[in-house]
Amino acid sequence: MLDKTTIICRCEEISYEEIEEVIDQGARTFDDVKRLTRCGMGPCQAKICTNLVANIIHEQTGRPLHKIPLPRMRMPLSPIKLETLTTDSTSFSAVKSVLDEVELEDGKVR
Amino acid sequence: METEVLIIGGGPAGLTAAFEMASRGLEVTIIDESFSLGGQLCQQTQLIRALPSAYQPMAGFKLANKLTEQLKDFSVRYLLGHRVIGLYADGSIGVTDEKDVFPVKAKKILVATGAAENAISFPKWTLPGVITIGAAQTLVNRDFVMPGKEALIVGSSDFALDVAYQLMEVGVNIKGIIEKSAVVNARDKEKVNQVEKKGIPFYFNSYVKEAKGNGEVEAIDIQLQNGILTETVDLVCIDGSRSPILDSFYQLGCSFGYQEVLGGWIPQYNKHFQTDQKNVFLAGNAAGISNHAALLLTGMISGISICEELKVLNRDAFKELTLSYWRELENLENKDAWQARIRHIEKFSAPLLKDQFIS
C-alpha cells in the first residue's frame, strides 16, 4: 500500500523511505526513529504517526507490536503558548520556573 | 484549586462516573477541553441501542443531554475549555484555561480521555479532502458543513456505516465502501442493509492504492482483487479504528499492557478500574476501545470504586453494585472485547511497560 515517497509524519514530512532507512540502521522503537529523523517532533507531537511507525517497525523487523514500546510522552501534553506558561499567576507554577527570567508586564511577556 | 475527585474528560464515561460520585456527596470537578459536555456523543445522531438498564435506547446527542442533565441537582464543578498539560512535582495536575496555568490538587483522579482515530497511510494520503470518518461526522453534525460532494469510505465498521449514512442524508454521493477483508466489519446487519439498499457498492479484499490530485484529492485508485478502479472524488473518509489516549496516564506514572482488540497499548488496571497508581482510576475508551454500553458501565464501575475508597459507599453495597455492573458489562460488551478486558485485568501485576522515564 505504501511507496517510498509516502509521507508517514505529516508535520515533519518524513517519508516511508526515511523510516525504512533508519530501521535498517537498527531503530527498533518510535523514539529511535524520532531521534534519527525528527519523525513525531512537529506540532502534533507524534499523535498521528506513532501507530504508523510502529506498524512499519513491525513489518520490517517482524517484532510483535507489544514489543514496540510507547514513545515518551512529555509535558506540555498539547501545544501551549509561551505567554500562557509564563503568566504571573499568584499560584506557583513548576513550568514557569524554567522561564522565570522572562520579564512580565500585566501578565504579558514584555 | 482543590477537589476530592478530578475527572479528566467530560464524555460518556466521565459523566456516568461523575453521577455515581456526585450523587453520593463527593466533590467532583470535571475538566474538558471542549466547551460542551458529552464528548463525541454530541455529534452522534445515530440510535444507540445497547445501553445499561438505566438508559433507554436513544440517539447519541440525546444521551449526552441526559447524562449532563442527571448531574444538575448535584454540585459538580465544570472546567470547560480547559486542558491538562502536565503534572506538578507534588502530584497536582497542571491545568490551563489558555490564559493561565494552575495546579489542581485532587484526592482521586479519574482519567476518561477517550480515544483518538488512527491514520491509514497510502501515497498522497495527506492531500486535503482525505479525512477520518470522525472528522466527517463532526463537520456534518456539529459544524453543519458538507465536507465534499463525491465520497469514498475506507473501512466498514459500524461507525463507518453510520457516518456513510449520515453523509448521504445531507446529500453527499457515496461512491463506494472499501474494505480490506472479505466481509463487512459492522456487526449491526440492519446498518449494512440500510447502506446496501441505497445501492452503495462494497469493494471487498480491496484497499486504496493511491490518492491523486493537485492541492486537493481529485481521484482514488482502488486496488481490487482483479485490477485497479479509479473513482473521481473530492472526499475520502478513513476508518483506521481508534486507540486510547494515553498521555495523561504516562505523566501519572501508570503501567501499560497490550491488547490488540482493545486498541493496542492500554493502561494496566484491576477490576475496579484502578491503575497501579492507587489514586488514579480510568474509564471509557481510555480503558480499551469498546461500545457505548461499556463506556457508560466502566464509568459507573470506576465511579463506585472511588466512592468506596473515599468512604461514601459501604463495603456491602459496593460489592453488590460492582457485581451487577460487571454482569451488565459482560452482557452488553462485544464478546471479544470483554474477553480481552478480562485477559488484560489478569495481567495487572505483570505489566509489559512500567516505570517509564517521565519528563
Structure description:
The complex is a heterodimer of chains A (about 110) and B (about 350). Chain A has about 110 residues and is mainly alpha-helical. Chain A folds into 2 domains: about 5-65, Arc Repressor Mutant, subunit A; about 80-110, no CATH class. In chain A, about 35% of the residues lie in helices and about 10% in strands. Chain A is built from 5 helices and 4 strands; from the N terminus they run ββαααααββ. Chain A starts with 6 loop residues before the first strand and ends with a strand. The relative contact order of chain A is 0.13. Chain B is of the alpha/beta class and about 350 residues long. Chain B folds into 2 domains: about 1-115 and about 240-345, FAD/NAD(P)-binding domain (3-Layer(bba) Sandwich), CATH 3.50.50.60; about 120-240, FAD/NAD(P)-binding domain, CATH 3.50.50.60. Chain B has 9 helices and 21 strands. Chain B has helices at about 10-20, 60-70, 135-140, 160-170, 190-195, 245-250, 290-310, 315-330, 335-345; strands at about 1-10, 30, 45-50, 60, 75-80, 85, 95, 100-110, 115, 130, 150-155, 175-180, 200-205, 205-210, 220-225, 225-230, 235-240, 240-245, 255-260, 265, 280. In chain B, the strands form 6 sheets. In chain B, strands 1, 2, 5, 6, 7, 8 and 21 form a 7-stranded mixed sheet that branches. A 5-stranded parallel sheet of chain B has the order 10-17-11-12-13. Chain B has a 3-stranded antiparallel sheet with strand order 14-15-16, with no helix packed on it. In chain B, strand 1 (about 1-10), helix 1 and strand 2 (about 30) form a beta-alpha-beta unit. The interface of A and B includes residues 66, 72 and 96 of A.
